[in-house]
Structure formats: C-alpha cells, structure tokens
Inverse folding.
C-alpha cells in the first residue's frame, strides 16, 4: 500500500499493465518523453521504451483510428486524449468504428482500446479545458463509459478497462487529480493522503466495471453522482445535516441500475448531481430510469444539480460550477417537498 | 450578389447529352517510366506521382521495366478472378433488381485493382477494403455462398444480419470489416501496420478508398501517421473518376493527381494505370517489398473508371454521358488482360467463352445454395436474440432486459 | 397551396429562401448538379447557379467549417450532411465552433448555419443509414435542434431555421419523406396527399422555433414524440382505443417545456416515444423534466419507447424499430399502472 | 514483444543536457531563389516548397528578387510592432507569474510572422489567427488596454469573461475569434474566402496554425477546399519546431517540409525564413496578390523557433536543451531587422534602446489603466447575468430560469 494521488494511481495502473502484458501500449499527444501534460504517463516511456509509450501527432481522430488498428492486430492500446474538450475530432472513429466494430462483424473483429481523457472544470481552464462530455458517450451503444472519483478507484477501474475486451472511454476529473475537492475554491487544497481512498495498493487489482459504490449510507435521500461531484455532494450533505445515501456511479455505461434503484426505494428521495450541463446530460438518463423504477416509492420529484446550459465560462467559473450551495438548495427543496 | 462570383467550380468534361471527353487525363506511354530501386528516396521519385505507370501497350504486349513477368498461369488465374468478380457483380445486381436483396454495389471496370493487388500481397497481409474491393475475396478464395448469404442477411450471414449487403469481413482471410462511413479504415490500416512493426513482424497492411474519400480527415490521418512512423502499409486511392455524382475534381483531383499527396507528406506516390493488371501488380509488389523491408508506406493512385452506377440506389445517366465508360482511354481491365494472354498465345476467345460459362454456372450454383439459408421473404430467419449480441462482449443487464421485452412482445 | 411531400416541401423552403435572400447558399455532397441523393435540392442549382448551390468534397468537417466561415462573411449557408450517420466527422466543428462562436466572442461573431440531415431508419439502410443522433446535439449549448414530422412543418420550420441567426441542426426523418408511416412496413405506402399537412403554401411562411404542437388532443395520457414516431404513435393510440394527447415536439432544443407540462398535468400520464436508442436518448431529458415539473400530477411512471440500445441492424429492422406493438404495450402498461 | 520493434520513432536532434543541434535544418542562401510571376503555374514552382525564401543575408543586407523594397519608415514601423509584441508578451508573462492573470502564451521569436504578414495584408483582409498571432493586433492598432482587459476577464473584457486569456477577437479589426481547439479556424478561413469570392469582392482571408496542428483534419479540409474552389486565402503554417513537447517530426516534418503539402493538393507552397521580416513580407505580398487576382490559395510555411515555453503551464527544460533558442540558425527576427536598419543607416543602438524604453512605458501605462476595470482579486466584476447571454441570440426560457436560479442563490 502507498499514498497516491490520482495521477500517481493512474500512472501505477498503466505501469502495472505495461509490465504484465506486453501487448499494452500507450499512444497520445506528449505522453512519451514528456510524460503527459498532467504527468499521468511520467516515466513510463523511460521504463518501457518509445515503442510502447508513443508520442503522437496532434490528431485525435488519427490517434483513435490507429489505436483501433493496433487493437485489431493484437495490441491493447491506451489512447490519451489530452483534454476531453478535444475528443470531438476523434468522435467519428469512436462512435462509428470503435463502438460498432464488434457488432457489425458479429464478434469476429473488435479492438480493446481504452481512451483516457481528463475532464471537468474548476481549474480556470475556460471553455475548452473544462468540459464534461461523458453524457454524449453514454448514448453510444457499444462503449463503456467510466469516471472514477478517487485514486483507489482510478487505479482499479483503469486496470479493469485495459483488461476489458470492450472499448472504454475513461474520464478523469482533473480537478481532483491532486486532492479531493469539496467545491470551495477558497479553502486550502487538501491532498489525497488525507482521504481513505488515497491508500492504493502498489500491484495489480481490479474494480469491476458496471458497479456503482455507495460511498455514504443514509436514509433520508439518495444522492447519485460521480467524479468531482462525489466530494462536493458529501460535503454539502454534511453541511446541510442531511442523512444522505451517496452513490458514486463510477461506471456510467453500462449502468448499475440495481444499486441506484435499491437505494432510492429505501430513501424515497433522489438528487442527481453532475458537473456537465444539465440539458440532456447524463443526469437525464439517471432521472428517467429512477422515476420509472422507483415511481411508487418517490416522495418528491427527482432533482438535478448540474452545470448551467452554457459553455464553461472562464471568469464565472465558480458561479458556473455546481458547488455546495446549489447542492444544498436542491437537497432542502427535495426534503421539504410536499 | 453572385453576379460577379469569382469562385472556381470544378466541372466534369461532359454531362448527359454531351460527347464523352477524357482529354483531361494525362497518361504516359506503356513502358516509359523507370522502375526505381525499392530503397529509392522519396524525394528522388516524386515524378512517379504524376506520370502513369503502365505495362500493357496498345498492341497488348507487356513492356518496360515495370513488367512483373508473371507466369502465364498466374495471369490466367488473375483473369479468372476478375471475371468471377464481374460475373458475381452482374448477378448480384440483377438479384437486387429483382428485390431479393436490399442493396448492391458493383466494381465493374475496377476489377484489376483488387485482383492484381490481392495476388501481389501475401495471404498473411491484412486488407482494409472499401465497399468496392470484392475482388479480394475472390483472390483469397472465400466461398461465394458466404458472400451471398451476407447479402441476404440470412441464417448463414457472417454479419448475423447486422450489415447492409456487401459489408463483408473475413477474420481468417485477413480482410477487415467494412464500415458504412467512408475512409475510416484507412488510418486503422496504418495502426494495424504500426502494430505489426512494433511486434517485429513483417506482415504489411493494405487499404483502399475512392477518389472522393480522399477529402475526408481519415485520408490525412493515414498518410500523416504512415509518414511519421514509417508504417508498413500500402495506401490505395482508387480514382474511378466519380464519387456518386461528383467528378474527381471536387476532391481536388483537377489540379494534381491524388498520388501527389504522398510526396506532400514524404511518402512515395505511384500513379498507376488501374486497368492494367500488370502495372497494378508491379506497383503493388514494389510497395509491398519496400514496406516489408522497413521502407515504410506508399500511396498508390489507381487511375480507373467506374463503369457502372455508384450503387443500386444510383442512376448515373443523370449526371454523365451514357457512353462514358466505353470512351474511357484506359479501356477495360478484363479485356486488356485477355487480349494480352491471347497475344502471348496463352488464351483464346473460345477458352474465354468457356470460362465465362463456367463461372456463371459457379455463381448460379452458389446462389441456389445460398437461398437454402433464407431470403428476405422466406425463412429460415436469424434468431431475433442475435440483435442484442456483440454490442459488448458480454450481454449487459439493460440489453438482457430489452431482449426479454422483445421476446415477450413476440409471443 | 399545393400538395407536397416532404422532399418537395424542403425543396420549396430552400427555393423560397434562395429567391428572397441572395445571401442564402447551399453546400453539400451531391447537392448541386445532381440535386441531392434524396433529391431535396433538385433543380435548385439550375435555377440559382452553381455558385449558390455548391457541390462539396466528401468531408463533412470541411463542409461545416467552410459553411461557418461563409456565415461569418455575411452569407446564410445551408449545409447538407448526406446522412445523419455521417455527421460525426463534422462533430468538432459543430460542437466546438458553430455552437460556441457567439458565446466565446460575446456576440461579436456568429454564423447562421443551418445543417440539414436525413435521419432515422425503416428504409433498410443498415447501421450507417438509419441513425437518429439528435439527442447528442440537444446536449450542446448554443445549438437549436429541430425535427419536423410532416411537409407543412418541414417547410415552415426550415424557413425559420434559415432565417434564424442561431445555428441549427435540422433532422429530416427520411422514412416519411414520401408519405406518413404508421410503423407497419407491410401496408402499402401512403402518399402525403392523403394527409392534411401535405397541403403546403407555395410561398414564404414560417413556423416559430421553440414551439411544440399538440397533434391530437386527449385526456387519458400524453404521448410526447417527434419525427416518424408521431405517426406511429397516432396509429397506436387509435388502435389501442386510448384517448391520448399527442405532442409533436418539433423543436427539441430549446424545448417547449410549457406545452408538454401543461398536457401532462392535465392527463396525469405520459409516454415518450422516439426512434433513437433509449439509453441517454432525448427521451431521457423529456422524462427527467416531466417528472420534475409534473410529479404531483403523475399517476404512473413516465414510460419510454425507443430504439433498442444496439446499432440499427439491417435484418432485424422491424424488430428494432419501435413500432405500434411496442407503443401499445407501453400505453397499456401505463394506463394499467396502480 | 518490442524487442524487435521496427517502428520508426522520430527523434528531436537534442534533449536536455545535450548540445543544441540544428543540422537537420535545410536552408538556402539569402537571395538565392527566384521570385516567380504571381500567375506561375503551381507545377512550375514546386521547388519553392522545399527551398527557403530569404532576403536578409548574414551581413544584414537585403538581397535578391524577393526583397520587397519597403521604405525604411515601414521597416521602422515593423520593428516597432515586433518590439511592442515582445515587450507586451514579456510583461504579460510576468503578470501571469505574479498570479494576476490565469494563463498566458508568448510569441517570442515568432514576431515577424504576424507583424510582417499583418503589414502586407490590407486592413479589410480577414485574419483567422491562432493563439500566437498577437502581433496582428499590434499591426492593426488595437488598444493594449483592450487586450489586457481580456486577459484579466474584467469588466472591459471583449469576451465578457468567457474565454481564457489571449483568446481575443476583433470584429471591426477583421480578426476572428480564437478557439481553444487547434486548427478549426483554418478551413473556416477558406469558407470566409469562398464567400468573398462568391460575393465578387477582392478581400482575402489569412489563417495561421502551428506545425503540430497540421496533423489535424482541419488542415486537410482547408487545403483541399482551398484547392477545389481556388479560394482567395493565405494558409500559414508557423513551424516553430515544437508542439508543446513534441518536435515537428511528429507532425511529419521530418521527411518533407510542411509547405510541400500545398503542391500535394495543387496549391503553391512557399517555405520562408520566418525570422526574416523582409522574406515573410515578400512571400505574403506574393500570395496576397495571387489570391486577389483569382489565382487561389497559397500555403506558406514559416520556419521559425519557439524561443519561450509553450505557455505558462509548460516547462521546456524538461524536453529540450536550455540554450536551444540561442543556437537557432535563423537568429532572432527583431535582432535581424534591427541590424538591417542599422546597416542601411536608418536605425541605431540608441534609438533602439529609446524605443524599448518608450514601449515598456506604453505597456506599463496600459496595464495600470486595465486594472481600473477589475482584476482577478479586485472588482469591479462582470455581472453574473452575462454568463447566460449569447448562448443563443435571444435568451431562451431554460436559461432565463437558470439565471433566475443563480440570482436567487446569490442573494
Ligand atoms: C462519411 C461518409 N460521408 C458520406 C457518405 C455517402 N457516400 C457513400 S459512397 C460516396 C461516394 C464515394 O466516392 P469515392 O470515394 O470516389 O468512392 P467510389 O464510390 O467511387 O468507389 C458517398 C458520398 C458515406 N458513406 N460516408
Ligand atoms: C484539438 C486540440 N488538441 C490538442 C490541444 C492541446 N494543445 C494545445 S497547443 C498544442 C500544441 C500545438 O502545437 P503547434 O501546432 O505546433 O503550435 P505552437 O503551439 O507551436 O504555436 C496542443 C497539443 C488543443 N488545444 N486542441
Ligand atoms: Mg470514386
Ligand atoms: Mg509549433
């Protein structure tokens, strides 16, 4: 066991897999000699060579496409897209190709590519370094979509993704790379060493894909969330003094409906929290499913707290970010309903 | 506002009702172009991207340094594969017209590309085809029944009913799955080739796209990555002059041959007479050997003509002269190889007729057999459950639920 | 007034706009001399010249990008993407550029591009000629998303889109280009001349963006739908003998929440029907919003009928397509609830 | 498995701790290359894509046919704009380091590109810049206070707080908005130019991207559409040798200059000494005149060096020798123009020193004024309501609701 922040945990996951499986390769912009702009691949090229940790041209579509081809030829590629905001030039290759190859060839061809990409705001990145486009990918049949909220999960889930024969888009909430974040930018930064999930085994372990985790048990309301917002939600519930059951979705698609439904049936109330814009965001799917499955148990409408339906504005970052204040307001709203 | 428009709009040389006009086509005499060493520097062989590599001359002789000197037996096999492709296409086209399959695309006039290239590659080389490379399946010997069953989406369909007709694939035969999205396979082939290089293997990849598709991003990704990593891949542009209704000028072929995109990024470009079986074979051999020896990628432009409609949904008489194909200066690939074989005394009109009969029979028999596995209108049919498989490797809970819902409905 | 099918109505809309406004231009694959693979632009190049109805290279990203540039330079471009399945290579230009230009430049730059694209299945098009990706675009702030269900609306809405200074993605359900379709492929085709909305004025008229239409008033349940599924839903409700209020959303984003909410508050029940895959489809947003706004009026969970969460399979087209059977089953389910 | 990897991996010539090595750089002597007529056929001037257009020789003289013969007064203005750009950059970099703005990107060493090109274009020509073209703003005379207020996201911010520092735009000045997504502006510029041609106007467009960005699809779209429609546009690749940490070889610059992509699709490519103010000016004039007279697009590669870090988030000492910039064979653009002016007797060290002082003062005064409109830490601040404007032209109901929700929360 070691103390790791999320960057170290991700690095460790890739290190373990490069070591165990000679078919694992990494390709992406600045991932090689430099070790990645967030340093997630630091030291890996030195250790495994420049033929396995490969610097790429600036062409996200080309990175995904060549990764697909490598996967078809027996490698197990990890493709890094430098920011989730820059995944769109690779969209066709992800949606039309990576996601559909197994289906269209009736299982004869497939490519086990894992796409890693940092997402989310709160780092003063402005409109093109802050986006959370995960919802879009959850609508694409044939993909797994994963987002961890802490170092322990990050490593275990990433190893599962690399080992999975399904293609995965793995979103890394970069605001919590270095420490958990409760939504208050004025507080001093907290390192992962203060958090239980900052304890990470050095070696190989996995966290199964497709399972949510109940990070707080509670009785009054279920908060369904993921990524950075897990921590904001925890802090908000605490501040509000509400006994919330908080679920970290982790695997967005396929989704662990059972865990969510069981909790909401128990609590009778539900709030969904994510950083992505609200309209047609992943929260919509969560709310639609929960109302369908838990209708007779619901004592109040399901609430959604999400980014406003605008691009991520540089100067209004903290008015945009769905912080504790908004979570608490939504919680009270739901608790007071009827 | 457009009174004074200064925008340049490319124009095909002739429209319906006009005489075919191929004066725009720049050619070289057969045998005129030197065959450089496979280790030649790209900068020294840029002219190959604008000249036209040809072997068969107007008298049906094979001439010049690009002559691959194939055995007559091999040429006969090539002729057979091309004819089979053409007869298969014609039959499937008729079958679609009879409403027995939903869609079809012929490769008429372009058979030399797939067949000569397929023969110049090793079976272990990986092909990433477009939808007009059915000739590869002939070369690699896929059972016609398998192809037909795919077109029928019947119980023996290799795609389990999931794809349009002609969107074949063949894992054991090293032929990749066809997507409906144009061009996506081009950079995938480069990735496959990169993996072969990483593994230290000497297999190479080959991929094909049309002239129109060169405008897509994937073309650019492919040539860029192939250049950067010196990937062992042959990237083929089949310039059949048309992209549905638009003339190749709309892809930028008016000013500069597509082969020239290669030298533009530092990989050799070969412009080849795509209707000349021997030239296509020779160029492919050159590129394959270069790739296998570590020299990296080659871009080959095959200058050919799409004799038929784009697909069964298309009617080319709306946008080009009816007799265009007959006027195409580079002739017909089947006729040209046949004439060459006759010229060298290895073929005859009679043998040709007999071969056509034989292949028509083969195709007919395959069609009969294919129908046993189901048709559009008659069973047996694929099990509906198959619709939910292979989305992911294992059936996830939500699809299990949806499958159950469908089952319940069907009861 | 004239009888028009949807293709003619769309053609007429563009004809009217090319004639009225010399800044209107069309660009797309095969749209010029040929008149489009679905013939929506038939005759327009002959009438307005090849400098205003422009054949394009096969590069959806380039088509959208150059259309954006033309729009910035005072033109009003209509870009055709030949099939919605092929819109993904243009995704980055749509999402990162077209949708965000006005916002990021504080209103100083904008580009009034209308992207027209045929969508939906039921034409034996297989996985890459059948998709309904509209939900994805509704998640992108800064875009309008529109889908008509009949010739009259198609023309009026398309003219509004062309005249709008906002960028629009305009989806055309190609299954109903030539006639309304109730979901039964075995019935003989019905022409638009049999349908009231097949009557279309020859000249200029508009249908405002952002307004849904109640196509059937009813009291027992609200069916919220759009595109081809409007007709399937109408037929299904009739067959089932249910007095359904059927709403054609038409403008998916921004959404006419008020009309939807008023109806569900009245009927107390709601079914959402679309052809796109279910998971994170646009129906999710509809359900999430309706349950939030109408919670206290709902007598049953909101149902969703949608495409299965698989690619569109060629052979199983009619098992995949959410036809009357599935709509009726869902209706009964909801009507019987509790 | 990679023991025997045969994949080619590009390598920069020197890494930290090693001696700078620019032996890979192919240059031509100043004045050595003929200046073709602006109506020259692309095929006849392909060599311009691999040779290097240079005017200033090692003795600081302007030589050869590409000498634009500018007035000394114009050269002094050019020097002033370049110096202002550099001083502005240096100041803003310091300001970022002091935590007063969140981010910054310098153009140090590349000033000649924006300044000489900006001066060679007409004010009515439309610029689609990248994030390293601040020199255009200097040439076109934007108030420095406006630029600084953008970087501060304060109440006078032209972007109303919505963009990262340096993502300027200027509608009246004909400078387009900068996106964070690399390269997207390149084909947009082509579209703008197509519209100018359609309208029969003689305005042209110009756009800039970096060497690394040439690998993106947008580069390909731009050169393809520009070629097909002969769009009046100048497409510039600023090859500053680096894309963050990756050397230009990773974009395919190792085998073939980026300018060669032009002839690859049938548009001229000019490879220019990007640190030579006169050469950049001359090449731009040539391309602009060609475009204005209907000759279509030109691709210009500016060979230059990114002297500074990629951005304030970058530390180049991790991936290249510290003294790299000093060893760059093409020198520094400011120094070279200064030396030339001194050589021709139109400048002096004293005047230079005085100008630097003056410009530092100008920048300092602008900074002082900018702060009045608000800073990161001190008001006045932009109204939160502005966050919801301009998503669409009119505020839609759902954003009205969200705005109300935020207002309520803020109370
Ligand atoms: C991304 C994408 N855009 C558009 C289409 C529609 N489409 C199918 S084939 C075709 C023309 C292709 O022309 P070309 O590349 O020359 O190949 P050819 O058909 O001539 O062999 C078009 C536009 C498509 N399938 N995929
Ligand atoms: C689509 C996209 N991918 C990746 C990035 C991240 N990124 C920003 S600048 C940069 C390097 C660009 O290098 P180059 O084009 O050479 O321009 P330079 O910075 O040298 O001027 C990268 C990779 C981005 N902004 N957009
Ligand atoms: Mg073609
Ligand atoms: Mg650079």
């Amino acid at each position: 066991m070691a103390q790791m922040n999320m960057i170290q945990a991700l690095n460790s996951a890739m290190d373990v897999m490069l070591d165990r499986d000679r078919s694992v390769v990494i390709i992406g912009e600045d991932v090689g000699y430099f070790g990645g702009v967030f340093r997630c691949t630091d030291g890996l090229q030195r250790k495994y060579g420049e033929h396995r940790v490969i610097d790429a041209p600036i062409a996200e579509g080309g990175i995904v496409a060549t990764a697909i081809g490598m996967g078809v030829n027996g490698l197990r590629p990890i493709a890094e897209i430098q920011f989730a905001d820059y995944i769109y030039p690779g969209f066709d290759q992800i949606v039309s190709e990576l996601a559909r190859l197994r289906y269209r060839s009736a299982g004869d061809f497939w490519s086990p590519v894992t796409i890693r990409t940092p997402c989310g705001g709160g780092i003063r990145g402005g409109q093109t370094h802050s986006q959370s486009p995960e919802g879009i990918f959850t609508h694409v049949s044939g993909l797994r979509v994963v987002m961890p909220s802490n170092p322990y999960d990050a490593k275990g889930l990433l190893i599962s993704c690399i080992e999975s024969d399904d293609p995965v888009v793995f979103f890394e909430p970069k605001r919590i790379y270095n420490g958990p974040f409760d939504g208050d930018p004025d507080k001093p930064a907290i390192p992962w060493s203060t958090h239980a999930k900052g304890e990470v085994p050095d070696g190989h372990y996995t966290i199964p894909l497709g399972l949510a985790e109940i990070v707080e048990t509670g009785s009054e309301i279920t908060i369904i969330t993921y990524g950075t917002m897990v921590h904001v939600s925890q802090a908000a519930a605490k501040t509000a003094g509400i006994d919330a059951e908080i679920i970290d979705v982790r695997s967005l698609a396929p989704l662990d409906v059972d865990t969510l439904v069981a909790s909401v049936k128990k609590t009778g109330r539900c709030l969904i929290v994510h950083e992505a814009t609200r309209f047609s965001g992943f929260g919509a799917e969560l709310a639609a499913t929960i109302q369908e499955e838990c209708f007779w148990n619901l004592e109040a409408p399901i609430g959604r707290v999400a980014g406003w339906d605008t691009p991520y504005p540089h100067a209004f970052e903290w008015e945009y970010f769905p912080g504790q204040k908004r979570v608490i307001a939504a919680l009270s709203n739901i608790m007071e309903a009827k | 506002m457009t009174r004074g428009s200064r925008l340049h709009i490319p124009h095909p040389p002739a429209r319906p009702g006009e005489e075919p006009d191929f004066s725009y086509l720049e050619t070289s005499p057969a045998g005129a172009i030197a065959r450089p060493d496979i280790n030649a520097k790209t900068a020294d062989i840029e002219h190959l991207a604008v000249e036209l590599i040809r072997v068969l001359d107007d008298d049906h002789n094979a001439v010049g340094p690009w002559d691959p000197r194939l055995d007559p037996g091999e040429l006969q096999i090539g002729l057979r594969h091309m004819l089979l492709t053409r007869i298969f296409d014609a039959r499937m086209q008729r079958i679609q017209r009879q409403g027995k399959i939903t869609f079809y695309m012929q490769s008429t006039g372009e058979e030399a590309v797939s067949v000569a290239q397929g023969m110049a590659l090793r079976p272990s080389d990986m092909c990433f085809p477009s939808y007009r490379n059915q000739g590869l399946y002939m070369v690699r010997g896929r059972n016609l029944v398998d192809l037909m069953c795919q077109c029928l989406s019947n119980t023996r369909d290799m795609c389990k009913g999931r794809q349009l007709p002609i969107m074949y694939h063949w894992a054991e035969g090293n032929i990749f799955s066809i997507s409906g999205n144009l061009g996506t396979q081009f950079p995938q082939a480069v990735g496959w080739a990169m993996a072969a290089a990483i593994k230290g293997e000497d297999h190479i990849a080959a991929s094909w796209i049309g002239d129109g598709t060169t405008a897509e991003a994937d073309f650019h990704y492919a040539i860029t990555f192939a250049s950067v990593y010196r990937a062992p891949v042959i990237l083929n542009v089949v310039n059949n002059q048309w992209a549905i209704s638009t003339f190749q000028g709309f892809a930028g072929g008016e000013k500069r041959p597509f082969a020239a995109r290669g030298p533009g990024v530092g990989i050799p470009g070969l412009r080849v007479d795509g209707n000349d079986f021997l030239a296509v074979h020779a160029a492919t051999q050159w590129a394959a050997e270069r790739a296998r020896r570590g020299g990296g990628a080659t871009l080959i432009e095959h200058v050919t003509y799409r004799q038929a409609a784009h697909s069964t949904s298309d009617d080319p008489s709306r946008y080009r002269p009816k007799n265009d194909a007959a006027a195409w200066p580079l002739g017909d690939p089947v006729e040209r190889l046949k004439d060459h074989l006759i010229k060298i005394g290895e073929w005859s009109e009679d043998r040709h007729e007999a071969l056509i009969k034989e292949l028509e029979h083969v195709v007919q028999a395959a069609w009969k057999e294919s129908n046993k596995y189901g048709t559009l209108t008659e069973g047996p049919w694929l099990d509906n459950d198959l619709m939910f498989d292979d989305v992911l490797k294992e059936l996830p809970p939500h699809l299990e639920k949806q499958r159950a819902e469908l089952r319940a409905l069907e009861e």
Summary: The interface with chain D takes residues 25, 51-52, 57, 59, 61-62, 65-75, 89, 92-93, 96-97, 100-110, 141-142, 144, 164-166, 210, 254-255, 257-258 of chain C (CB under 8 Å). The longest strand of chain C covers residues 270-277.
